[in-house]
Structures
1.
Amino acid sequence: MTAKIIVETPGKVNLSPRASKQEGNDMKKIVILTGSPRPKGNSSAMAEAFAARAEQNGHTVGRFNCAAMSIRGCRACETCYQTGKPCSFDDDFNSMAPAILEADAIVFATPVYWYSFTAQLKAAIDKMYCFVVGGKPFSGKECGLIACCEEDDLSALDGVRLPYERMAALNGWTSLGEVLVPGVLNVGDVEHTDGLERARLLADRF
């Protein structure tokens, strides 16, 4: 099965940079938000491949596994930052919010659950609304998408791809690519596709 990478206009947890192989490159802070409850699942494997290549290229990379965190849904109270914290209803999102805000780039990695993001990752995405309400500088970032699904039909990923693209457009982010891998279900299936290599190539665009 072949992964699909869509290349658009080119445009903190464990933030330890490695030496860059490319002299003179603009080194960036990249945050990866993963949504799979399976630590060794297919989207997680692609996120690891992306992170390893990005660090090899000299970027600093922080990864937050939303599925292992306690993040409740946005309550639309619009009292963001009024208590001194990004979300007035304190949970693990507040620990990751500063890294997201400071990042030059955000990468979302998720399997498809019922034709959409996993609930754990979607809760974190929804809570990013706090940056808008709080008037924080949230535009101008780069972003990328890594996603996979069980079905062979690539359109099964539309429920992740389309919201990602609209989110990027709304926030004024530059999408550097989408790695979309259909036809993977069991742990390790992605190793029989070009998804891992596509994830590395996506990292090279940052």
2.
Amino acid sequence: MGMTAAATNQLLPLIARLFLCAAFLPMGWQKTFGMTTFSGRDAQVLRAAGVRSDGLDWNLAKPGTVLAPESQDGAPFEARSLYTVSLRCAESGMPSPAVLGWAAALTELCGAVMMGVGFFARLAGFALAIVMGVAFWLTGASSLAWSMPMEDYLRTWTQAGLFFMSVTVLLSGPGRLSLDAMLSGLPKSGRTAAAGKKSKPKQVEE
């Protein structure tokens, strides 16, 4: 195998996976275990979605439940940082924004670990691509312009880059340096060679 083929089959998928792991693991960790203080309109929207400082009110968080934010208290309260995602979802009219916030955070956290070790990496790539695609649609797609602030510019193209890198792992696989490759056994070429060997006929003793 030449150097170019070795890099394509082994090093590049590994670098892509480790990059995605390094990018998503801190984001998922901070969303899941970090705390943020919400107040005013944000507090009203989250309370209407069933978010409480001590957890979720599932009667309000379940699909199909719609409650006007204006009917809720706007006093500040502290909750997990993942509910910043829920705010974006609620503002876009998506159902069950609190549940979607949890789904996004856990996908980033678990998907990053799966990417890092190369375990069900295609599935992780698919899930992370969905998260980044939705994030781009919620926060970046509407702000694309030549005059957009640098902060928005960096966020938008970071989301797009992570999306396409996740799709790359989804389509090309995790490479040989991964748990997926180890668990799948021999490479295809090795299985073909082994199957092609002719077994020696047993000598029949007279």
3.
Amino acid sequence: MTASPNTSRPSRRFLATLLALVAAAFAAGGALITGMPATAQPPQAPAAPAPGPPAGAPDGPALVLQLEQRVKANPDDLDSWQMLGRAYTVMGRQDDAVKAWRNIVRLKPDDAMAHAELGRSLGNANGRKLNAEAEKHLDKALALDPGNVMAHALLGRVALDRGQPAVAKKHFEDALEHLDTSHPFAQQLRQAIQIADSAASSPSK
């Protein structure tokens, strides 16, 4: 007997196509330090083409629709919420991403990355500016995982905005410490540390 599409486990083709969709986020080369002035950002290397979905597989929007049907049928389907959260982020559907990550935090309240992703999504949905709720989740991410790179990077950006370059530098250094030196984001963190040093040495206005 064939299982209902809403309750059966995702097929390998379904998962492979969703992973290809999510991979587009990394191929785009977007910085985690949201809101960094363009003049302060290090140059971005040309991104390699994102892998496409397997032949004959449904496209991104069709996959998202299937995931939405799954969580509608089962609101506690953690795997589907996680894939939705990443897919919505890639697609720029920030309000939907916030909803997805809220559900992931609900289902995994002690997951540091879930809190970090929710914090980032809240900032993106707020015009790429972190609000108090976003900061709360980023702080929670660090309480659960002191080496969370995303939380350190985003909180470092907040500290720079508040005129706290020493605090910002510490966040950026902590993020860099927990990242492979060859990772593309490592260079952005080094640049951010230089920006914090420059801000610290500048005369106060």
4.
Amino acid sequence: MKAPYIFLIGPVLISAYFIFFKKQEVVVDNTVAYTNAQDTVKPKVTNSQQNTYEDLKRLAYSVQYQQLHLPDNGDKEVLYGVLMDWDYEGKAIITLVSFKTGDVSLYFSTGSGVIGAGQHPEVQNASKAFIDKAKALLPQATNKDTALTTETGHLKFYLMTNKGRYVVKDKMENVNNFTSPLSPMFEEANKLIAYMRMVEEKSKH
């Protein structure tokens, strides 16, 4: 069964695509030896009664710059991945993962997910653009407390660079009111997810 997509417009999530009401699990086969970027950021997906949200999230966050086979930039710091955690009204955590290669995935703490959307050129380009714009977050970010943790009522961006991990966060109240420096990137994240939804709709025809 194909994993459903969701469509986000700003802070508004269209309930027809929200997964609280129809739980469909994604599970990663951790016995696979990931040897290239495609395998690393696109785990195998199956249907299961086991919720592997945390496993998929940790797997994505563990990806290293070298695994993506990106050009050697010497001593220059390069942002190659972004993991965004969005606490959706205390009901679930929505996690968007984007890489400089164009790979992108979407995970739900309720157990569902979208994996491999970056195979489509439109989504791949949007993912690369998202990473490029996310560079603006680095000056605001800290390299302390970068472990994956969930905070109620917060939006968090985990920034993955070849020099280390960084994190920047703010309350969703501020993000939604456009009083947060994270509001612009939250909008960019919604645009990326909208591209994922658009591709899904096209594939139905």
